[in-house]
Write a structure and sequence with these properties.
Helix 6 (about 145-155) packs across helix 7 (about 165-170) and helix 7 packs across helix 8 (about 180-195). The chain has helices at about 1-5, 20-30, 45-55, 70-75, 90-105, 145-155, 165-170, 180-195; strands spanning about 35, 60-65, 80-85, 115-120, 125, 130-135, 160, 205, 210-215, 220. It has a four-stranded antiparallel β-sheet, with helices on one face. A three-stranded parallel β-sheet has the order 1-2-3, with helices on both faces. With about 220 residues, the protein is an alpha+beta fold. The protein has eight helices and ten strands. The protein has two domains: about 1-105, Response regulator (Rossmann fold, 3-Layer(aba) Sandwich); about 115-220, Orthogonal Bundle (Arc Repressor Mutant, subunit A). The model is unreliable at about 105-110 and about 170-175 (pLDDT under 50). Keywords: Activator, Cytoplasm, DNA-binding, Phosphoprotein, Transcription, Transcription regulation, Two-component regulatory system. One of its GO terms (cellular component) is protein-DNA complex. One of its GO terms (molecular function) is phosphorelay response regulator activity. It is found in: Cytoplasm.
């Protein structure tokens, strides 16, 4: 039913009943996004999410019927880009899928970046390829939300950004995700970027304010 409904939205969909079937589909074809249920036979969705994120930046939208926030937060910590709680309205699911595709630059005609490269503290963001490399030149895998957060920080370096402002930068007005999810994404960014995530230097917490990016940032086209 879900495949037929998404097909009406001009989306090509493959259905996999478990992690093994998903792996077979992914070996045979390329995909723009994964809609991943938490409750699956065999390997659960959280475990699948963890290994998908370890391989790359493919957008992941989690489906969950569980009422406890901890499962959704854990999904975000493992690298999911967004989540929808069952039962859901199809219109909301479609909106979230399109939002993730748009932010991942998969839809045609994306807005051209103001500059090709953003650099700070030896790190480089390639805005066209949507890739991040550390000071040693190694590529660092990031979700679309993490990358959007990092770009928002870079373009507002030295300014305090509230959670509301950061939420707008990563969810583009979609209803549902809370300010708490911003903290989860920032914690993941710190784990990937800070030498000591418990005492962050690049992304500092501003008491009663939000967060501040402290690095000196430069943008260029080459």
């Amino acid at each position: 039913m879900l495949r037929e409904s998404l097909a009406e939205q001009s989306m090509a969909v493959e259905i996999a009943g478990d992690g093994r079937a998903m792996d077979e589909h992914m070996r045979a074809s390329s995909f723009d996004l994964i809609v991943l249920d938490i409750m699956l036979p065999g390997e659960d969705g959280l475990s699948i999410c963890r290994r998908l994120r370890a391989k790359g930046n493919l957008p992941i939208l989690m489906l969950t019927s569980l009422g406890d926030d901890i499962d959704r937060i854990l999904g975000l910590e493992l690298g999911a880009d967004d989540y929808v709680t069952k039962p859901f309205v199809l219109r909301e699911l479609v909106a979230r899928i399109k939002g993730l595709l748009r932010r991942a630059a998969y839809e045609a005609g994306p807005e051209p970046p103001r500059s090709r490269f953003i650099r700070f503290e030896g790190w480089t963001i390639d805005m066209i390829k949507r890739q991040v490399h550390d000071a040693a030149g190694a590529r660092v895998a990031m979700t679309t939300h993490e990358l959007d957060l990092l770009v928002a920080f870079c373009r507002n370096a030295g300014r305090t950004l509230t959670r509301e402002q950061l939420l707008a930068a990563t969810h583009a007005g979609l209803a549902g995700p809370t300010e708490r999810s911003v903290d989860v994404h920032i914690r993941r960014l710190r784990q990937k970027m800070e030498s000591d995530p418990r005492n962050p230097v690049l992304i500092r917490t501003v008491r009663l304010g939000g967060y501040m990016f402290t690095a000196r940032v430069e943008e260029s086209h080459d």
